[in-house]
Amino acid sequence: MASNTRSIDRRTAEREATQVIERWNERLIAGRATWWSPTIGAAIAACMPWLDVYCPGCATSRTIDIRKLDRHPLGCIGNLVLGMRCTWCPGGARCRRSRGSIGRRRWPERRR
Fold first, then answer.
1. CA separation for the pair 33, 78 (Å, rounded)
2. Domain extents in the chain
3. Which pTM does this prediction carry?
4. Residue 80 pLDDT class (50, 70, 90 cuts)
C-alpha cells in the first residue's frame, strides 16, 4: 500500500514539475520576459535535466546535464545560468542567458 502511494506521489510530482518546466520553456522560446525560473529539483523531477545555455562571447550554445552539477535542488535555474562561464572563450565570458529550454531531450523511462 505504501509503495503504491509513493508511486502515485512521484507521478503527481513529475506531472506538476513538467507543467512548470514547459511553462518556462514556452516563455523563453517566445522571447517573453521571465519573472521567475524553476528550480533544479523541478527540472530533475520532470525528467528534463538538460539545460541549453548560450554564450554571447563566442556565440555558441551548449547543452548541460544539470544532474551532474553540485547544486542544491532548490536553487533556481536562472541563478545557475548567471554563474556559468564559457570554457571555450579566451576570457571566460559569462553565459548570461538560457537559450530555449530545459529538457529538450528526455532520458528513457526506467523499465519496471
1. 12
2. 2-102
3. 0.74
4. confident
